[in-house]
Specification:
alpha+beta
Length: 134
Amino acid sequence: MNVRFILAPWLWLAATPCGAADAAEPASLAPGLLQATLGLAVVLALIWGAAWVTRRFSPQGASSRSPIKLVASQALGQRERVVLVELGESWLLLGVAPGHVSMLQTGPKSALPQLAEREATPFAKLFALAKRKA
């Protein structure tokens, strides 16, 4: 193989003096920083706009007229949940796993039990205290 063929792409590097273009004027970071900031602002605005459109036109708005309502949900594992569903005047407690839903208990519709002050965690007590002061 010809050595000139292998070195040809690199010959232009040897022909240009090192730092000749850089020594003429100091580099400024302001244009690049401004461009990055504006790009980030555009991306964040697009994310916010997509979230707004998704919330505005999601099918959940129609579910308020549905007789079936999700009251509460609690994760038990990575893909397992316990779900409390209101159906008319009764509540259904369902166990939900991938590919399987089972009824755990049924009962009449009632108010959810509130966490008593004595049962509240220290964080919940401090948070309630901070909310009252604000």
